[in-house]
């Protein structure tokens, strides 16, 4: 993971941890997910954080979806089989590409 992306990923994960409410935590975790997708360990780590948040919120559907994503995150990253811009949430769909926020697109050098 290039330093500029690692720095942004780390900042988003820290912001998620320190956020005052669940909505803000999810927003930061989603941004961290977009940054982490090409990298097996950070991608998996992000889904673990999403699982923990889903469990804390007692969101069974999201928690189950995150368990599935934890299983496929590292292989998907390693094989380059991940949907660009996907936020990583269960409602997003496992293979659904999504528009990438402009600042993250600039940072990652994508569209």
Written account of the structure:
Residues 81-111 are annotated as: Disordered. This is DUF3703 domain-containing protein. Keywords: Plasmid. With 111 residues, the protein is mainly alpha-helical. Helices cover 68% and strands 0% of the residues. It has helices spanning 3-18, 22-36, 40-56, 60-79, 102-108. It is globular. The two termini are 19 Å apart. The mean pLDDT is 95.
H/E series: HHHHH
Overall number of strands: 0
Report how far the terminal alpha carbons are from each other.
Answer: 19 Å
Beta-strand percentage? Answer: under 5%
Number of helices: 5
State the major sheet: none
From the alpha carbons, calculate the radius of gyration and give it in angstroms: 13 Å
Shape: globular
- Average of pLDDT: 95
Helix fraction? 55-70%
* Low-pLDDT regions: none
Compute the number of structural domains.
1
**Which structural class matches the secondary elements?**
mainly alpha
Features:
111 residues; mainly alpha
Write the topology of this structure.
Layout: H1 3-18, H2 22-36, H3 40-56, H4 60-79, H5 102-108
Keywords: Plasmid
Region (Disordered): 81-111
Protein name: DUF3703 domain-containing protein
Summarize the structure.
The protein has helices at 3-18, 22-36, 40-56, 60-79, 102-108. By secondary structure, it is mainly alpha-helical.
């Amino acid at each position: 993971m290039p330093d500029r992306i690692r720095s942004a990923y780390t900042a988003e994960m820290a912001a998620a941890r320190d956020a005052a409410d669940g909505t803000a935590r999810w927003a930061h975790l989603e941004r961290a997910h977009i940054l982490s997708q090409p990298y097996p360990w950070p991608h998996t780590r992000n889904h673990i954080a999403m699982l923990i948040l889903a469990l804390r919120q007692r969101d069974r559907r999201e928690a189950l979806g995150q368990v599935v994503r934890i299983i496929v995150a590292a292989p998907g990253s390693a094989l380059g089989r991940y949907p660009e811009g996907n936020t990583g949430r269960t409602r997003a769909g496992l293979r659904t590409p999504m528009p990438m926020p402009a600042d993250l697109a600039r940072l990652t050098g994508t569209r």
